[in-house]
Amino acid sequence: MNLMTVSEVAEFLGVQDIRVERLERESLLLAKQKDDEGRPLFDAEDVKRYKTFAERIGGI
User: Fold this and answer.
1) For strand 33-34 and strand 3-4, is the pairing parallel, antiparallel, or unpaired?
2) If exposure means fewest CB atoms within 10 Å of the residue's CB, which of 37, 43, 47, 49 is most exposed?
3) Cβ-based burial of 38 (10 A; exposed 0-12, middle 13-18, buried ≥19)
4) What values do phi and psi take at 2, rounded to 5?
């Protein structure tokens, strides 16, 4: 499992960090674990699937 930080996910999705944190809070993008500072870490495959899904329904 390849984990991505909030910043990496934001760059991949083309959104701001705060948007990724909101997606996680709203359980639209699930974190696999938290880093030492309590920030979410995401599975790269889940992020790719989310991006594909979001594009199909009209955007992120």
Assistant:
1) unpaired
2) 37
3) exposed
4) -100, 115
Q: What letter does residue 14 receive in the DSSP assignment? A: T
**pLDDT tens for each residue of 9-60:** 999 999 999 999 999 999 999 999 999 999 999 999 999 999 999 999 987 7
Note whether 2 and 41 are within 8 A (CB).
no
Neighbours of 13 (CB within 10 A): 17
Which 3 state secondary structure label does DSSP give 42?
strand
The token pair that represents 33 in the structure block = 């674990």
pTM over 0.85: yes
